[in-house]
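Retro notes (design track)

What went well: tokenization of the new backbones is finally stable.
What didn't: we kept losing track of which sequence belonged to which structure.
Fix going forward: every design gets posted as structure first, then sequence, in one message. First example under the new rule, 829 residues:
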């Protein structure tokens, strides 16, 4: 009988079955399981979509605590092929996870070749990984941590072949794999330590009898170091230029115990990883389930003991060193058990597990004097039992739990999909803070393109209100009256129009509108109230939010290379004590990186004294990343205390570095500063408006500033040491100069008896910061002679001048012109 040219070995069939099992477990019911789409998954996908939309290609993505690029570039490829959808975001993980299984098989087979290990060890290791709850969870989400086990297994395999076979090709491949691993996930930074420690220890143990092997080992390590350094160099230069990028996430999770008891508790929890502990985060694991399986201890601990007993053997020594090194993040970070940071442990763990389980079964077989087939059957039963527990725990308990649904932003995903469906009937208006969440932006990416609002927006529309935004994770701090986004289906495709924040009258309209209607309640799949739908037949009161989106007050303040503030609103302009003050800021981003500096806002009085302050993230949700070159409205609320005195107040603003406390340089025209004062609002305890003058006047300075009047005390109260003169100005046009105000008291002969020159608010709020239409009220204290004014007639005059040139601004009034205007005449007897 003629033999076939292709001889299919039964062991290959078993490996294929294991791979198919791994693939099936990872693809079943994807992407609905897990439900929703978590913030990080969407963030990676939005970065990828941003690249396809023309964003710059980067070797390190600084947003979201910093991320290495390989996973995001894979996302870019998949989105380019399949479009932006939750399935696309998660499709990389099951493919990478499935690929890791045969790589672990060949790694285990290579380690076992000279170690006198059972021949079935590679199959048991591959099967254990294929059915691992931990690896299954990683393989069904859009997390870059799934790359770690594959990167580790490939690097270990190439290293082992390069050293044991003295193959330069595999030495070079090991260096390439090690260098590329640094572009996967931050925990890969410990990989080089494994090879350095192994080379040192194995050399100490074998330097006398195995000189050739020692030389080959160090040659392998040297080649790996050189190649990996070249591969890592572009990323390393980025970290060299900005060390904060390297340490941002590391510092965020670093464990710093405050006491010996806290340290012992942390170490105890870390050790429990190999006993009964699991990741407490519902997004990564089923809390209460052992991270390494219910039956993992049956193989792991015997395997670890066996490796320690045979520690002089290279494979055993390598497994122990790799295990301990990859376990270091558990000791140094919080929480100690974390599925993503520790995922590189999985290939090493399951090889040790397979070794221990097979040795335990073989020993049991010898002890009871039974054939080896019984031991094999016991191993198969244990593996199948663990597989059944994994399937039940993952698909039956974890995937259907309400905690998982919420943690994966399931409520948000369901609601956004409902909004997309409703937009086919009529436009949907959603809060801006919901829109800029990366999950929302990604789900909307292929449906709506952000565009400038058109003039023909019309109804009916459906307005969304979120009474319980905390159920939508990371959709937080929505102001009572936020900006909105109008989502409309058009003949040429979907359009998204972004509004400015509502102003006082518009806020009143919103409140009255909502109070007069009974909304339709939207509930998520667990029956929780999530949102309200308000039907609005005539959206005319809302249209100015979209069509007149310019800020009331315009400025041009630049933090070079970071951000630009182009306008702002402060409301109410006339406030009362114990009342909230809303500050709307309009930004443009000047950087492609995350702007991670902290913003501070202070309410200050006319003398510059702070009365309240706020500090926090400049741009919630890194919103500019989802709106490149767009207008970036942010909203902030500060409270006026119940004892706030009446008078004018300003808003002081700036950025600072949280690590150093240093303020970020600011460019105001040609002037450098580190903070700026914006204005202006007033506090009153009465019904009177302090912006209204007691003595109306009509004088215009250079067609830019209008003096509407002054407020003076009665002549009988003109007593030393000062005469308070309150000016009431109104800005007509922007000015490019900080003009100085002069106030002079002249006698009958026209001589200056007293004078006072100053920029408004002692320079805190110069004229080049005034916005057209803004009313500015400031009080000057004109010095009076200590002995009082001599009898006679006096005139009080004022004007503006340029301090650099000394030139006064021309004045036009209804009667005459000149370079000053008269405020009052009076006689002292």
């Amino acid at each position: 009988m003629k033999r076939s040219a292709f001889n299919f070995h039964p062991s290959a069939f078993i490996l294929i079955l294991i791979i198919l099992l791994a693939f099936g477990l990872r693809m079943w019911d994807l992407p609905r399981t897990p439900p929703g789409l978590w913030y990080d998954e969407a963030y990676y996908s939005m970065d990828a979509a941003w690249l396809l939309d023309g964003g710059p290609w980067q070797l390190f993505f600084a947003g979201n605590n910093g991320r290495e690029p390989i996973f995001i570039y894979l996302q870019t490829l998949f989105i380019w092929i399949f479009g932006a959808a939750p399935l696309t975001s998660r499709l990389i993980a099951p493919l990478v996870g499935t690929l890791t299984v045969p790589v672990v098989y060949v790694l285990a087979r290579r380690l076992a070749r000279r170690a006198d290990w059972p021949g079935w060890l590679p199959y048991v290791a591959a099967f254990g990984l294929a059915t691992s709850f931990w690896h299954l969870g990683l393989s069904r989400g859009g997390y870059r941590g799934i790359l770690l086990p594959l990167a580790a297994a490939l690097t270990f395999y190439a290293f082992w072949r390069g050293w044991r076979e003295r193959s330069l090709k595999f030495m070079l491949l090991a260096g390439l794999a090690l260098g590329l691993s640094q572009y996967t996930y931050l925990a890969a930074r410990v990989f080089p330590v494994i090879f350095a420690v192994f080379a040192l220890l194995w050399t100490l143990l074998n330097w006398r009898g195995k000189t050739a092997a020692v030389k080959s080992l160090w040659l392998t390590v040297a080649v790996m170091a050189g190649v990996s350094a070249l591969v890592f160099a572009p990323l390393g230069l980025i970290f060299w230029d900005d060390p904060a990028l390297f340490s941002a996430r590391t510092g965020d999770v670093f464990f710093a115990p405050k006491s010996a008891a806290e340290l012992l508790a942390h170490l105890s929890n870390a050790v429990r990883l190999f006993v009964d502990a699991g990741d407490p985060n519902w997004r990564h694991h089923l809390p209460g389930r052992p991270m390494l399986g219910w039956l993992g201890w049956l193989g792991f601990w015997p395997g670890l003991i066996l490796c320690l007993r045979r520690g002089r053997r290279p494979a055993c020594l390598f497994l122990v060193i790799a295990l301990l090194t990859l376990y270091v993040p558990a000791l140094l970070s919080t929480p100690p058990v974390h599925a993503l940071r520790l995922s590189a442990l999985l290939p090493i763990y399951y090889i040790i597990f397979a070794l221990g389980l097979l040795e335990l079964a073989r020993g049991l077989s010898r002890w009871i004097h039974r054939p080896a087939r019984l031991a094999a059957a016991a191993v198969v039963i244990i593996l199948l039992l663990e597989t059944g527990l994994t399937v039940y725990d993952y698909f039956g308990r974890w995937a259907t739990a309400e905690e998982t649904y919420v943690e994966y932003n399931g409520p948000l995903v369901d609601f956004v999909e409902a909004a997309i469906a409703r937009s086919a009937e009529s436009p949907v208006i959603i809060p801006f803070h919901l829109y800029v969440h990366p999950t929302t932006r990604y789900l909307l990416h292929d449906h709506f393109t952000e565009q400038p609002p058109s003039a023909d927006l019309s109804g009916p529309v459906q307005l969304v209100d979120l009474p319980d935004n905390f159920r939508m994770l990371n959709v937080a701090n929505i102001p009572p009256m936020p900006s909105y986004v109008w989502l409309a289906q058009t003949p040429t495709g979907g359009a998204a129009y972004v509004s400015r924040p509502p102003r006082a009258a518009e806020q009143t309209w919103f409140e009255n509108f909502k109070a007069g209607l009974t909304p339709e309640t939207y509930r998520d799949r667990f029956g929780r109230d999530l949102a309200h739908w308000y039907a609005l037949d005539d959206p005319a009161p809302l249209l100015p939010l979209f069509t007149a989106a310019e800020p009331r007050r315009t400025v041009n303040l630049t933090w070079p290379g970071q951000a630009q503030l182009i306008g702002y609103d402060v409301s109410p302009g006339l406030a009362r004590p114990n009342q909230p003050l809303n500050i709307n800021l309009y930004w443009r981003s000047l950087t492609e990186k995350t702007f991670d500096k902290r913003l501070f806002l202070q309410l200050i009085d006319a003398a510059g004294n702070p009365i309240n302050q706020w500090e926090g993230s400049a741009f919630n949700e890194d919103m500019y990343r989802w709106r490149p070159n767009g207008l970036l409205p942010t909203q902030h609320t500060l409270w006026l205390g119940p004892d706030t005195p009446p008078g004018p107040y300003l808003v002081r603003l700036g950025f600072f570095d949280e690590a150093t406390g240093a303020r970020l340089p600011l460019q105001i025209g040609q002037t450098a500063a580190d903070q700026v004062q914006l204005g202006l609002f007033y506090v009153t305890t009465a019904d009177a408006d302090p912006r209204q003058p007691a003595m109306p006047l009509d004088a215009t300075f250079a067609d830019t500033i209008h003096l509407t009047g002054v407020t003076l005390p009665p002549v009988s109260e003109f007593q030393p040491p000062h005469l308070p003169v309150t000016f009431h100005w109104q800005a007509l046009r922007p000015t490019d100069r900080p003009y100085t105000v002069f106030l002079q008291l002249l006698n009958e002969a026209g001589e200056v008896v007293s004078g006072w020159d100053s920029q408004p608010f002692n320079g805190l709020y110069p004229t080049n910061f005034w916005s057209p239409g803004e009313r500015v009220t400031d009080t000057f204290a004109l010095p009076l002679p200590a002995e009082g004014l001599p009898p006679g007639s006096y005139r009080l005059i004022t004007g503006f001048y340029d301090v650099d040139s000394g030139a006064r601004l021309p004045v036009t009034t209804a009667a005459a012109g000149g370079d000053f205007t008269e405020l009052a005449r009076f006689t002292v007897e």
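Added context from the reviewer: Residues 23 and 98 are 5 Å apart (CA to CA).
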